[in-house]
Amino acid sequence: MSLSKRVSLTPQSPAQPQQDLKHRVITCLNKLSDRDTLAVAATELESIALSLNHDSFAPFLTYLSATSSSDKSPVRRQCVRILGVLSITHGDALSPHVSKMLAAVVRRLRDPDSAVRSACVGAVSSIASEISKPSFSSLSKPLVEAVLTEQDQNSQIGSALCLSAAIEASPDPEPAQLQKLLPRVLKLIKSDGFKAKPALLTVIGSIAAAGGASSNRNSLNSLIPCLVDFLSSDDWAARKAAVEALGRLAVVEKVHLTAFRSSCLASLENKRFDKVKVVRESMNQTLELWKEIPGHLDEVPVSPQLNANSSSKDNGPPVTFLETPLKETIPSSRNSPIQRSSPTTTQSRSPPKSNYRKPNASIARKVDFEKETDSKVNIPASMDCKEKFINKKMEPSERVDTDKTIILETEKRVTEQVISNKTREGNFGKLNGSRFGSRVVPFIDDCEFEINGNTIEYDYGNQKEVEDLSWIQKQLVQIENQQSNLLNLLQKFMGNSRSGMNSLETRVNGLERALDEISYDLAISSGRVSTKDSCCMGVPTLLNSVVLLLQQLPEEASSH
Hints:
Residues 472-521 form a coiled coil. InterPro entries: ARM-like, ARM-type_fold, HEAT_type_2, TORTIFOLIA1/SINE1-2, TORTIFOLIA1/SINE1-2_N. One of its GO terms (molecular function) is microtubule binding. With 560 residues, this protein is an all-alpha fold. Among the domains are: 15-173, Leucine-rich Repeat Variant; 321-461, no CATH class; 474-559, no CATH class. Helix content is 59%, strand content 2%. The protein has 19 helices and three strands. It has helices at 2-9, 16-32, 38-50, 57-65, 73-90, 98-107, 114-130, 136-149, 153-169, 175-189, 197-209, 217-229, 236-252, 261-271, 277-291, 304-311, 396-424, 463-525, 539-559; strands at residues 338-339, 376-379, 456-459. A three-stranded antiparallel beta sheet has the order 1-3-2, with no helix packed on it. Mean pLDDT is 72; it is low at 1-13, 297-400 and 422-461.
């Protein structure tokens, strides 16, 4: 009897561990529904996942997938999170079960709880990074289908974020497949039916970072304008995702973005002062990345005069030109840098005079010569000038001396003009020690030089910096005017207060005299003082005057 029972129990022994596993998992899931036992149940469920063997993977995944949307949010979240723990712990041993794990994740993408969708993103990231046996195309196929076909907004958000996480976490995201996917994503993001624009922009950024836009000019021609358009979106999350995608693109595709550099920099400059702080920070970071892209303006062209100089050795003396290397920094000396002028320059421009000094009623400002870096002063030919240097018939040694003479004469006249301006304006710009520096802009009115009919162009820097300095100067003048108005108002208030105090003091003195007279009259009426020599007014008259004074005191006090 006992032997028969043993024989009957022997076939049930392999199923016993699975029954125990099911019981333990269901018990943990029930405990997850209670807030008091949530932490203990999560720890126990994680320990079960760590101790699984190869035969227990399939039933364990089945038990986790048995949860429904009617379960509480902690249960749904922990069931998805455990998939990531399994991937990290067991790795490629789960390769046969990847499709089942992804199906469980996709089922939870419709979840209204953002914490559950975040757990899905984490689980997909772990699966893509730890399980390497299935190809990336097989891994991403259900996620791509979910992105392209789902109509629910929560599902669109979750599937897009999961696809982005899979692309970034995968060791080999297969850029060739991503290049095929990018046009479909760009077409989808322009559709009004797809509502999760920020999440899909994140996918575009991940594709760009993984090389999905490389060596495909057509993709760049459609991708960059699309991202630039989203910089003006009303949704700040879309603006942030778009500018981050532009930043990733600038890092990976730096060489292929030269043609788009100027337009993107202009768009980023216009949108850099966003009202949302995180968007502003992303704008500034992306702007710096795009400035590092080499553009057409960054290439220094070779002057035609160099070729003319080398080719004219046998055909006569070369054209004289002055060459100074370009510098982006402000020169420290007072000698102005001379920019090499083009031989085709024939039109002259008068030097700016009124752009550097802004009149003010109280303070006359001066602009320092060495700090002005943004104006270009052309010194054209003039028939009234006494010095004209035409060196077409000069020897080479004489041409060198002529060039040096031109530079010395120019510096001498500029220095004389600076001293003259300082002498004329020495009596201005002083207020309480003149905290602002004295600055003068030199310019040449009458004398101009000509070298072989070509103008010598003085370059003081970038025009934008001059505009910035002028704007700062206007702001300083406005602040000083406001301070002057406040000082005048304060002085006027102090004067009114002082006059009010004097008037009040006069009233009080009058009241004291009236009280003295009243006391004197009372003494007379009581007979304590003789009335023979008394010439004071009567008691009723004095009382009336006192009443009038008392009535005027509150009015005077309230007015001051």
